[in-house]
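G.,

No rush on this.
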Amino acid sequence: MTGPLDIPLPVLYGLAGIYALLVAASLIVAVMRRRDGSGRHQELVDRTKSWWWMIGAFTVCVVLNQTVAIVFLGLISYLALKEYLSLIPTRRIDRSVLLYAYLAIPIQYYWAAIDWYGMFVVFVPVWMFLFFPIVMALRGETEGYLRAVGTLSWGLMMTVFTLSHMAMLLVAGDAENPMAGGLGLLLFLVVLTQLNDVAQYVWGRMLGRHKVTPTVSPNKTWEGLIGGVATTIVLAGAIGPYLTPMDMVWSPRPAG
């Protein structure tokens, strides 16, 4: 069943609920900041703003069309890969090879757009993993070769291959998820990912005592991690039947 703009009703209801929560959260944060001007709630402010941006962007993609959504997701991969490459050491001789990494982004998302899963699932982890070492080897520079191949290949894996699965969910989900379509699957993924982050933050602030990785993420605690995972599991079971083809016991719904 669809609503305005052919958007599945579960997705519309889900977005309406998210916006209601965002309005409530924004009001609560504003009151907290007004009562306490010390700035210790700045992290909450930043998290709320990021939520508004993410849900706003998702809504724009939903209102327009699937092609716009795929292009937007491809842009996210581009920005992620660009940020990754700015953090890792690269050899001067391999600078031109980076162009091939960027060109892999539209190709990977094209496979998702045409729903060619067979090519989608092997293009980066097989073909690009073979292509990069060959091209780099032909340049004749052996110093730092293995590190350069590994960092570039796995960077593409993390920022392009993994993120492009959102586009594949969007395209292929219509056939597998008659209730909410690919939009429902994508919304389910985005909401649970962000709610997990929020839940870990809240549980960590309330009960956090023991650090998970003090040098990597000083604010991450075991209490927050466990509480966030448990909360996410409960929420997944609650909203899964409305946005995905899974029921409360994580089994496929019977046909009809």
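When you get to it, here's the other one too:
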Amino acid sequence: MSMLTPPTGQELYDPLSQNVWRVVLALVICIMIIFKVGRQVRATLKTVRAKNHWIKWQTEELQEDLTYCHPRWPQEARAIQNKIKIINKLKIFIAEDAWFYYDWIALIVMIATLALHIAYYKVDANDDIRFAYTRIRSIASLVVSLRLLKDLRSFPGIGTLIIILGQTSDDFINWAFLFFLIFIPFSASFWIIFGGPSLKPVLHYDKPASLLYSVFRMAVGDDFNLEGLVAAEPDMARILTVMYVTAE
């Protein structure tokens, strides 16, 4: 449905006789969103209640242990009291599965898309709403598609791959941090030598957005206008390029 959006909002459902399928599909989507929100809210409340119950149970157990502490060894009582404080400071809601948070993100994006869909239909010929609607619709398509990976975990083969990718997500974040740790200072160096304010601006390096894209292309081995860099500053071009490619 997101790929069949007409140029104007009124054409979504008018005339009704030719767009009955849109109405039916929109109702199905609304029902699915309501069902998903209800199920997610119930799951969230269940997690919060379980966590509160565990905190209460642990606190009561430790309070009971305090009654058996001997005055001769006060460090034992202090250790139990510190443990009680740590337990009471725990966050009420912590999901063990990261997909739980992703489900909320997907639902929020879907609700925003539905709201803009209604606004796009009601407020016709509004470029701002159309601009926002098309962007959020594009993002929603990606978010909902990635959400399907959660349901594919139970299948052999692809499910194993998805689980492995989930387990290596921390390593990917560490790698991304290291990449940007190298990417940002080298981008600044290229901007100083070849950017817009430099003495010899180079094509694709004279604007911040195009420079960042060119530096990223350099990291993946794509064309990054090496000839222009060498023509502007032969020595610095070679030094920065070799250092950056080697570091990446």
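The two ends are 42 Å apart (CA to CA). The chain has a mean pLDDT of 85.

Enjoy the weekend,
O.
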